[in-house]
Predict the 3D structure of the following.
Amino acid sequence: MSPVTQSTKVGLGQTGRADADLKVSSVTEAITVTASAPTVLETTQVTSNMTHAEVDALPIRRNQLEITQLAPGVNTNTPSLAQFQISGSPGYDNLVLVNGVVVSENLRSQARPLYVEDAVQETTVMTGAISAEYGRFTGGVVNSITKSGGNEFSGSLRDSLTNDAWTSENLSILFFALAAGSILYVVIELLNVCRTFSSKSLTAWGIVLGLTLGFATDFILVAAGV
C-alpha cells in the first residue's frame, strides 16, 4: 500500500477517529495474508465539547456553569446556585475539573471559578457511559483545560455593558412591595396566635431564634462566596 498521511483533532476527554483510504502502490512481490478482521472497539461515552472560540462567539458567561448548559441533558433546576443537573442527577453529585483538579466545593459541590475564564481552551461535558477513570459522581463530569501558551504575547479585554433603561424600577418596587406585604401578613398572623394562646414568651424566643438562624445562614453564604 502507498503511504498515507492524515491528521485529526482529539478533543478533551474524547476519542478521535481518522479513516484513511489506502491505495495499492506498484507491486514488486506478492504476499498473501489470510486472517479475520478484529472487532473494532470504540467508546460509547456521550460527550459534548465546546472550544474557546465557540464560547467566545456566544452571549453567555465564560464560566463552567454557563458552558455546561450548552450540552444536551443539562439544566440548572437545582435548589442551590452554581449547580447544574446532568441526566436527572442531583445538582450536588457532579464532578467538575480544571486541568484534572477538582474545583467544586465540598459542602454543596458548587463549581468555583478558580481560574481566569479567558484562559480556558476547551470544556468537555460527559453525560453518559463515562469511563471508570472518573469517580465521585452519579450525574456527569465537566472537564476544562487551560491554554498551553506559547512564544507569542496575546491578551484580551472585555467589559459588561449595562443601561438603566434596560431595567424597570417599577418592577423592582412591585417585587419588594409584594415581599413586604407577605412578611407583614405572617407577622399579623403570628400576633393573633400569640394573643389567642397567651404565649408571649414562646413567641419572643421564636422570633429571636429565627433572626439568629437567618443571620447565621447569611454569614455562611457570604463566607462561602455565594
